[in-house]
């Protein structure tokens, strides 16, 4: 971790207020997966093109999320089955900033829309106010309950010229009750754009490093890892999960 901590110091900082101009709450996301070693090689190639989000002197803050689904894992199954319209419901805490939101992400025909409201704390059961918010933004919502905690650290980069943000997630952990699953060497990158622009410096660097876009969902990874004993269907994700575990174990 020390090397990454040192490398991020070479970027020019940007504040949360300055980054508000690039919120991209309606966007296209492109994801990549690679190793921490590749992250160390990647960061110096990006520093002339991106600024880094810094909050109270912290450049790799901790994110903690609590995800919800119904008894049948409908949100997960919609993703697994490739449904064009699918949702995620979660609380997200920006730990060092002590900021929290209840969020609904809706992916429809490749675009992602995110709605959120500020909240005071995690809720094991959704309050009336939270339920009203979720019902407003999720079609045909049934009874949902907390299913999974997800914790990771995130580097957020903002392009100096293009309207795009890049997030790099490390130290991923999924847990529920006594079950804990860790992906310490896996990096999940996500470039967020108004529309896909492959002239982005990040796309160019990924191509030069031989790393191709990779569709994946942290929620789906965690669901499979934590609930496989319940015979969660994941045949469409088996190859993806195998690749992610190979990356995490640094196996070619």
From TrEMBL:
InterPro entries: VTC_domain, VTC_sf. Pfam families: VTC. Signal peptide: none annotated. GO terms for biological process: polyphosphate biosynthetic process. Residues 26-224 form the VTC domain. This is VTC domain-containing protein. The lineage of its organism: Bacteria, Pseudomonadati, Bacteroidota, Flavobacteriia, Flavobacteriales.
